[in-house]
Amino acid sequence: MESQKSAGITSKISPPSITKDDKYYFRDGSIVILVEGRLFKIHQSLFERDSVLFQSSFSLSQDTSPDESGSTSLAGSSDDTPVVSNDRLADFRALCWAVYSRLLDEHSKESQGQFISSCSGWDDVRRLFSLAEQCGHKLLTQRIEEEWVHQISDGSPSGAGLDAFKQAVAVAEGSTKLRRFHGRVYYAYLRATGIFDAPSSADVAAYNLGYRPNSYGVGKYLSRLSDKQKVHMYQGLWSLSQFRNELVRAPGIPEELSYEVEDDIGRSKTSWKASK
């Protein structure tokens, strides 16, 4: 990567002249790089890990220069003071793909069921899961998702399972592409609380979901959820209730059916209603 030491930070860059890369601008990235009007916020340690060239390039480019107000800033520390690279945009994006794909491939080779335990903490799990989803690494995304749901289901609903649940919800709520994972997370936690094992006569109305009698061992777990999380459960319960109402309706009769077949289905329709 070629970096301009002198052009890196002479003044703040006009916002209209640049855009953030839609794939390689990570909120938790450690250095901001500008390539042909495109901002990248990447993880410096990943690029430096196996390359002396990157180590020297980043070291040379991250000088400090005064801005318009006279104060100094470290190059690459913000969108206003990025490290300016002379690389072609396509080449730099290809480089990012290679670096992050390698990282994901390394983690996808972890033994089945041991990925989460191999990470140093939930921050790493969340970061890698989001990265795998953004980069379209379906195998790793699926593996992390399965292990995460397993941790919620098998963990204590007031201990490890609750921690796994809250971390998963935080990730799922940050992406519109994780709706299925979002639903699985809530379902796994509800199963862990034992709510589905309660007697069928128990009062499980939406407005009472967080205040079930402690004799069922559920209320104390749901009371640990935030109001926002409870609202999501109420909305899910309502949606499932509406879906159930659709399922118990008699099947429709296609217009192209003959009168003879329609008559047979009419009798079946009567039987269907009688059996409900």
Could you describe the 3D structure shown?
This protein has 276 residues and is an alpha/beta fold. The protein has 2 domains: 1-109, no CATH class; 115-246, no CATH class. The protein has 11 helices and 7 strands. It has helices at residues 44-48, 52-61, 89-108, 115-118, 122-134, 138-154, 160-172, 179-193, 219-222, 227-247, 259-275, and strands at 3-4, 19-25, 31-35, 38-42, 64-66, 72-74, 83-85. A 5-stranded mixed β-sheet has the order 1-7-3-4-2, covered by helices on one side. Strand 3 and strand 4 form a beta hairpin. It is elongated, with a radius of gyration of 27 Å. The N and C termini lie far apart (69 Å). Residues 2-12 and 204-216 have low confidence and may be disordered. It comes from Macrolepiota fuliginosa MF-IS2.
SSE inventory with pairings:
Layout (H helix, E strand, L loop, with lengths): L2 E2 L14 E7 L5 E5 L2 E5 L1 H5 L3 H10 L2 E3 L5 E3 L8 E3 L3 H20 L6 H4 L3 H13 L3 H17 L5 H13 L6 H15 L25 H4 L4 H21 L11 H17 L1
Parallel strand pairs: 2-4, 3-7
Antiparallel strand pairs: 1-7, 3-4, 5-6
Helix pairs in contact: 5-6, 5-7, 6-7, 6-8, 7-8
Protein name: BTB domain-containing protein
Organism: Macrolepiota fuliginosa MF-IS2
